[in-house]
Amino acid sequence: MLTSFQEKLINIVNEQETQVTFGILQQVTC
């Protein structure tokens, strides 16, 4: 079982990965 703290950390990491991926896609399309 994940604790609420672990879930928050996972959400933060997922958001960062999404931002990085989006940034890479923007660089490729430019």
Between the first and last Cα atoms, what is the distance in angstroms? 43 Å
Poorly predicted tracts of residues:
none
Shape: rod-shaped
Order of helices and strands: H
Strand content: under 5%
Determine the number of helices (DSSP H or I, runs of at least 4 residues). 1
Describe the structure.
The chain has 30 residues and is an all-alpha fold. Helix content is 87%, strand content 0%. It is built from 1 helix and no strands. It has one helix at 4-29. The protein is rod-shaped, with a radius of gyration of 13 Å. The termini are far apart. The model has no long low-confidence stretch (mean pLDDT 91).
Briefly say what this structure is:
With 30 residues, the protein is an all-alpha fold. The protein is built from one helix and no strands.
